[in-house]
Specification:
Layout (H helix, E strand, L loop, with lengths): L1 H4 L3 E4 L3 H14 L12 E5 L15 H13 L5 E5 L3 H6 L3 H4 L2 H7 L3 E4 L5 E5 L4 E5 L1 H4 L2 E5 L1 E5 L3 E3 L14 H4 L3 H11 L4 E11 L7 E11 L2 H11 L8 H8 L5 H8 L14 H6 L2 H7 L2 H7 L2 H7 L15 E7 L9 H5 L22 H5 L5 E6 L3 H6 L1
Parallel strand pairs: 2-3, 2-7, 3-4, 7-10, 8-10
Antiparallel strand pairs: 1-11, 5-6, 8-9, 10-11, 12-13
Helix pairs in contact: 2-3, 9-11, 10-12
């Protein structure tokens, strides 16, 4: 198949067992490039753009993170970091996105550390114009795994392996990337070089991404070492022409991939059900840095953060993220067996591989309260005690 000739591995993965098995196969294939020293600093960079979990297709599936951590721990590695720098709005709002998504609890279970790259010590990298600060750890690691999500993007067409590295930029430094985003994708990927990419295409985002698109069950995991080939492959199976994804068109102009590889990608006949974003010229204009810097200025910040401004800006697509300050506080969970129809959705989604439907199962043993099971249960058979916080709206949807 074309993907094999491209050095890519593609797996069908709908449930947690398929995810774990797929990731372990990736590790076996790439065993030779793993660090020899078991205390090497291993760095996992998912996409935790904001506080909406993988069921909305917004952030990397915790099942993939758990599978990667499991494969490393099985091999005796004990110095592992899971890290991302959520978007500028989340940073500005002072929210702990990694805690809200239970990334910290997942990492702790596997003996790994969890870091917010917006708040880590920095070093400088070169952009097309000037420099930007990046979390220093991104340059200091021994082995870097990039774990992006397949997402539509109103500005770029799509987002996957290459663009996921924007999360390495610190806080408001991310805005500098948007001064010349196409060229800066290349500058960023020249200076931060993951060793391996494992793409979460289980629940992909279509429509008006990257923050408020449509979840699509595409049930794929894609892995490889060349991010350009990965993104070209993803664009092809999503139905994009390379001209529709401007940074990929630029990559072809720069000949960063061979003509033979381009021919192989063109020959790929795999397709997934994908919804392309529609262009929003008003949003593109209003998201230019000139307006964004005004929005975050002390003079306008209070106005732009108000509820009435969100009611105007969200429908126009100018703002995708509306953050609530109310964190969830879940004290207990249980399965109401009278409501349960044994659909097994909860078991399929659980990153911890918990046997939720077993007779004597207790959520107190190993549950990280990611709430995948609760939010996805079609019969509302998973019941929680405590405050859902900002997730009240999500559950209502």
């Amino acid at each position: 198949m074309s993907e094999e000739k491209l050095g890519l591995s593609v797996f069908e993965a709908k449930d947690v067992e398929a995810v774990y098995n797929s990731v372990e196969t990736v590790f076996k294939k790439h065993e030779s490039i793993l660090p020899k020293k078991r205390d090497a600093l291993i760095f996992l960079k998912p996409n935790f753009n904001n506080d909406l979990n993988t069921l909305t297709a917004t952030t990397t599936d915790l099942r993939v993170i758990a599978a990667v951590l499991s494969s490393f721990k099985k091999r005796g590695y004990d110095n592992i970091v899971v890290a991302d720098g959520p978007n500028t709005g989340a940073f500005h709002s002072g929210l702990n996105i990694l805690s809200r998504l239970k990334v910290d609890a997942l990492a702790k279970h596997f003996g790994a550390r969890c870091l917010d790259l917006n708040r880590e010590p920095t070093t400088e990298i070169n952009l097309q114009k000037g420099t930007a600060k990046i979390a220093k750890i991104c340059k200091d690691v021994d082995f870097f795994i990039n774990i992006p999500k397949i997402k539509s993007h109103m500005e770029f067409g799509m987002s996957c392996a290459l663009k996921n590295l924007i999360g390495c930029l610190s806080g408001f430094e991310k805005r500098k990337f948007h001064d010349n985003p196409i060229e800066n994708i290349f500058k960023l990927n020249e200076q931060v070089k993951p060793n391996l990419h494992i793409v979460d295409g289980i629940i992909s985002m279509g429509g008006q991404g990257p923050g408020k698109g449509v979840p699509l069950e595409t049930n794929l995991i894609i892995a490889g070492t060349n991010p350009f080939l990965i993104d070209l492959f993803v664009a092809k199976i999503c139905g994009f022409s390379f001209e529709e994804v401007k940074y990929l068109q630029r990559a072809l102009e720069m000949k960063v991939v061979s003509e033979e590889d381009v021919e192989l990608i063109e020959a790929v006949d795999r397709r997934i059900n994908f919804i392309k974003p529609k262009r929003n010229r008003l949003a593109e204009f209003m998201l230019k840095n000139f307006f964004v810097y005004i929005r975050y200025s002390p003079l306008f910040d209070g106005i732009m953060s108000s509820k009435w401004s969100s009611k105007i800006l969200v429908p126009l697509g100018i703002r995708q993220d509306v953050y609530s300050k109310q964190d969830p506080n879940i004290s207990a969970m249980k399965l109401n067996k009278e409501k349960c129809n044994q659909c097994k959705k909860c078991v399929e989604l659980c990153p911890m591989r918990l046997k939720i439907l077993d007779k004597n199962f207790d959520f107190q043993n190993g549950c990280i309260k990611c709430l995948y099971c609760f939010l996805a249960c079609p019969e509302n058979a998973i019941e929680v005690e405590g405050d859902l916080g900002y997730l009240k709206t999500f559950k209502a949807e």
